[in-house]
Design goal:
- It contains 1 helix and 4 strands.
- With about 60 residues, the chain is mainly beta.
- The protein has a domain of about 40 residues.
- The strands form 2 sheets. Strands 1-4 form a two-stranded antiparallel sheet.
- A hairpin with a 5-residue loop joins strand 2 and strand 3.
- The chain is elongated and about 50 Å long.
Length: about 60
């Protein structure tokens, strides 16, 4: 699980699919948006590349 380096809280990813629907209610092209949800030490949710995520957060193995 990705965790914020400062607060150690989980980092959440929101995936949103935007579909173009015509008058017959058929789905057309799809645009997918990825937003990373902030932790306390971040300013807000934002789009970011994996390199930026690695700078702000760290991968921690979770015990199940």
């Amino acid at each position: 699980m990705w965790r914020d380096k400062e607060s150690k809280k989980p980092v959440y990813l929101q995936i949103t699919n935007f579909h173009n629907i015509d008058k017959n209610e058929d789905c057309g092209k799809c645009l997918k948006a990825f937003m990373v949800y902030y932790c306390e030490s971040w300013l807000g949710s934002k789009e970011m590349e994996l390199e930026e995520l690695r700078r702000l957060a760290e991968w921690v193995e979770e015990n199940e």
